[in-house]
Every structure is written in structure tokens, then in C-alpha cells.
Design a protein that fits this description.
single chain, alpha/beta, 10 strands, 261 residues, disordered N terminus, globular, Rossmann fold, 34% helix, 10 helices, six-stranded mixed sheet, binds adenosine-5'-triphosphate, four-stranded antiparallel sheet
Length: 261
């Protein structure tokens, strides 16, 4: 008999998901998801369109709360704290968990004001302190050198790849511990995609990253762990190398070898 070689995260666990069901009204989109997300590692969510990757990602910062009729069962623990417990401070949660979307969505404001937006909401008023946060976040997002001389220019004038890195800087500016990325490079050209992937590699040292991607090569390149979803279920989860070289489920193998999806 072949030993099951599913490797569970062995380091510090940042997010524990237990028995998670999710419903859009009467339609169930996620079924009994159990998953551990390791701290300061990249976890990729893969699977065919409509399998629930984005829904799952959005349960991790309660972004689904704003969807009419949405309902969650089960638990999502961040550092052992259930984010769905009554009395959870969602503003504080969103400070700890940043989100970057598929389509870069800068505000029609200056580059500076985009990055300063979150810190201002959280009460930072001092101009010098804001300037420090803006610089640090732009440096971290690998954009500082390209924009340092035009911080007052409108962010809409940046290229697509620059706008996406600006959105990453904006997410970093409030000092999150977790970064959720929903296909952050799928609208970018190959060069900008490579830049974002490189950035994910750099951010991994300090942030727990969960990324949805349709691009299998990208998942293999950037992630430490991979979760394969199918029809709302977590079919297989393990070290990325194992999932891509020796998946234990036939469905996973069929998907990663391009037989469906
Ligand atoms: N706001 C919504 N209201 C109702 N149903 C929804 C909503 N958002 C998603 N769904 C449904 O939930 C299921 C999971 O969708 P989800 O977007 O999470 O999948 P996905 O794997 O991220 O897909 P894709 O790769 O195409 O983005 C799908 O059947 C989808 O139609």
C-alpha cells in the first residue's frame, strides 16, 4: 500500500478553518472545509471556475458579510480567535487581514492619498507619520523608486502593473498580518506578473499569504502549500511540491494535468 503523503503545515498555524459551510441564500457554495494556514507561508487556492475559491478567500476576512442572504457555519480562527464570534470587531479584523483583488482598484486620488487612506481611517493624522508609512509601504511593494517623485500625481495615471503594486502598498499600509490575494496578476502582462510574483516571494517572510490563482504554473512558483477545491469541497491540501508532483487524488491530478477546468 502506498503511504499517504499529505503534508500538513508543520510550523506556526495562523488560520484554522473548521467545518466551514457557506451559503448564498439557499445555495450552498462551501461544504465542510477544514484547513490550516501556516504563518509566513504562501497558500495557493486552485480549482476550476465556480468551485468556491473566492468565496472561501472572502470568508477569511468576512468580506462575504456584505452579500445579501449570505450565511456561514463553522469556525475561522485567526491566532486562535474565532472571527465569526459575536462581538468581533470587524474593523480591527480588516486591519489584520488585507485584501488585494484581481482588478487593481486604486481610488481616483493621488498616489500618496491612496496609500495613506487606510492609516487615516485608523486615526493617523500626523503628516510626517503618514509620509513615513506611505514611503515604507511603497518600498515594500517595490514601487517607491518608480513613484517617489510624483506622489501627488493621480494614481489612475499609473500602468496596470504599477496600479496593482499600489494596491498592495495600500493593503500593507495598515500593517496587516495576513494578505489575501484574489488572482492578483491575472489582468497583468507577463512582465508585471513576474514582478508581482517576485513581490509575493519577498512579502512571504513577514506576511501569511493566501492567493487564489487560475494559473497552475503560478501556484507552483509562488506557493508553499496548495489547496485544490472542486464543487465547493476541499479535495486535497498539502505541500505544493507534493500536490504538483504526486497528488493523492485523481481529481487533483486530472486538474493539474489540464484534463478539465
Ligand atoms: N454573490 C453571489 N451570489 C450568489 N452566488 C454566488 C455569489 N458569488 C458566487 N456565487 C456562486 O458560488 C459558487 C462559487 O463561486 P466563487 O466565485 O467562489 O468560485 P471561484 O472558484 O472563485 O470561481 P472563479 O475561478 O470563476 O472566480 C459559484 O457557483 C458562484 O456562482
Amino acid at each position: 500500500m502506498v503511504a499517504r503523503r499529505i503534508r500538513r503545515p508543520s510550523g506556526e498555524i495562523k488560520i484554522q478553518v473548521r467545518g466551514l459551510n457557506f451559503y448564498y441564500g439557499a445555495t450552498q457554495a462551501l461544504f465542510g472545509i477544514d484547513m490550516d494556514v501556516e504563518a509566513r507561508r504562501v497558500t495557493a487556492l486552485i480549482g476550476p471556475s465556480g468551485c468556491g475559491k473566492s468565496t472561501f478567500l472572502r470568508t477569511l476576512d468576512r468580506m462575504n458579510d456584505i452579500v445579501d442572504g449570505a450565511r456561514v457555519e463553522g469556525r475561522v480562527l485567526i491566532d486562535g480567535e474565532d472571527i465569526y464570534a459575536p462581538g468581533t470587531d470587524v474593523v480591527r479584523l480588516r486591519k489584520r487581514v488585507g485584501m488585494v483583488f484581481q482588478k487593481s482598484n486604486p481610488f481616483p486620488k493621488s498616489i500618496f492619498d491612496n496609500v495613506a487612506y487606510g492609516p487615516r481611517i485608523h486615526g493617523v493624522r500626523n503628516r510626517r507619520q503618514l509620509a513615513e508609512i506611505v514611503e515604507r509601504s511603497l518600498v515594500r511593494a517595490g514601487l517607491w523608486d518608480e513613484v517617489k517623485d510624483r506622489l501627488d500625481a493621480n494614481a489612475m495615471g499609473l500602468s496596470g502593473g504599477q496600479q496593482q503594486r499600489l494596491c498592495i502598498a495600500r493593503a500593507l499600509a495598515v500593517g496587516p498580518e495576513i494578505l489575501l490575494m484574489d488572482e492578483p496578476a491575472s489582468a497583468l502582462d507577463p512582465r508585471s506578473t513576474a514582478r508581482v510574483e517576485e513581490l509575493i516571494g519577498e512579502l512571504r517572510a513577514d506576511y501569511t499569504i493566501v492567493i487564489v490563482t487560475h494559473n497552475m504554473q503560478q501556484a507552483a512558483r509562488v506557493s508553499d502549500y496548495t489547496a485544490f477545491f472542486y464543487e465547493g469541497r476541499l479535495v486535497e491540501f498539502g505541500a505544493t511540491e507534493q500536490i504538483f508532483t504526486n497528488p493523492s487524488k485523481k481529481q487533483t491530478e486530472d486538474y493539474i494535468t489540464g484534463r478539465f477546468g
